[in-house]
Input
Amino acid sequence: MGRGKQDKIKLPTNWWPHLLSFINSKWQYPDAPVDVYKFTSISPRSIQKAKKSNLMTVELFVRLAHELGFDNYEDLLRVLGGKTEASRLVTPIPTSLSLTTQRVNPQWADYRDYTVRAARPWALRCQIATESPYFRFGFKLLGEDGRVFGDGSIKSHDANMIVHIGRNNWDRPALGITAHDIFLTAYMSGNFVEENDRFLFRSEAKLVAPIELQVDRSYCVSLVVNSRKFFRSIVPPPICRRVVVYAWGDREEFRVDVTDLAIK
Output
């Protein structure tokens, strides 16, 4: 017994060149006309049929959108129509901001909350500068209805991941971390990813560092500091569309200046 009639999506005229252009701009791939199939499990035969008819089954198109990093196939349809990729952040993102002590919030945290519309892979990049002896700076990936704060802290036990760097104003000999050192900590749904804070590098009193949160096509999250990748973890897909940028001081006064903030 054959398969029943499948619903189809009408593809825009010239969708194929727009698809190749998108792949080249997203991954800087030099030979997209030949190697586009490396980005999708859809067969060349199915692609050729779509090129002739400008039609594709809903099932195949949804799969193509997902494999190219779109959670919503309508965003891919927009790109194939020659329009720019959907607004990358629902909330406009400033190029710079200052995060300072907010005593009304748990851990005296300051934050900005953004919803990401960019297709994966995407990266949130910035440069931070701080002279605070004690500080934390990092990111929380969370779901649409996820909690910015848990019960009395930034950590919460819903689906989320927190990764941050920090500095203490005292030495911790047992961990090999001094008051001059920058360290990394990560949590998954409120639980430590690693048992202890991890030493990253020694810093002057004024820390200036580029930092980048990356989310790749496979929902792998990485944290890059000073052009070095220090952290990598797979996360649930539903938390890859919202990111909160935090700084906090755990009841210590702090200031972290953020510049060159952008999503790529």
In short: The chain has a mean pLDDT of 88.
